[in-house]
């Protein structure tokens, strides 16, 4: 079975598709920017409330090409006492309902993850 679609109708479909793709890219770009803002606010809160030594963002947020609609915010932290971990994570999760946040105490991370954080991470 073949569909008989006129060239005019096909051009209309293509234009609609391009419009949708452009809108989707724009929304993803906005989400990427929002994720960075939240990561930076999170780092500020960790420094001010827990006096952590360093905060590094890693994962898909460090590479726009890898960032997707379901990307979360991955933060590695140095100097966060174990007793404060859950409270710190709660503060980060409360920053935005849009994102899940993973908080990784650097010294507790597996060696392979530490290497990724050190080589690809961005200090906030």
Q: Main sheet: which strands, in order across?
A: 3-2-1-4
Percent helix range = 40-55%
Beta content: 5-15%
Low-confidence stretches: none
Can you identify the CATH superfamily?
A: Beta Polymerase, domain 2
Task: Report how far the terminal alpha carbons are from each other.
Answer: 58 Å
Helical segment tally?
3
How would you describe the overall organization of this protein?
The protein has a single domain (7-123), classed as Beta Polymerase, domain 2 (2-Layer Sandwich). Helices cover 52% and strands 15% of the residues. The chain has helices at residues 7-50, 85-94, 111-120; strands spanning 54-58, 73-78, 101-105, 122-123. The protein has a four-stranded mixed beta sheet with strand order 3-2-1-4, with helices on both faces. The model has no long low-confidence stretch (mean pLDDT 93).
């Amino acid at each position: 079975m073949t569909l008989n679609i006129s060239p005019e109708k096909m051009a209309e479909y293509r234009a609609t598709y391009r419009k949708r793709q452009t809108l989707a890219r724009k929304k993803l770009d906005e989400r990427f920017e929002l994720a960075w803002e939240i990561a930076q606010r999170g780092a500020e809160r960790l420094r001010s409330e827990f006096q952590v030594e360093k905060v590094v963002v890693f994962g898909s947020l460090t590479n726009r090409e890898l960032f997707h609609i379901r990307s979360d915010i991955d933060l590695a932290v140095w100097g966060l006492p174990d007793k404060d971990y859950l409270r710190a994570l709660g503060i980060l999760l409360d920053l935005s309902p849009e994102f899940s946040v993973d908080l990784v105490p650097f010294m507790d991370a597996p060696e392979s993850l530490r290497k990724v954080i050190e080589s690809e991470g961005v200090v906030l």
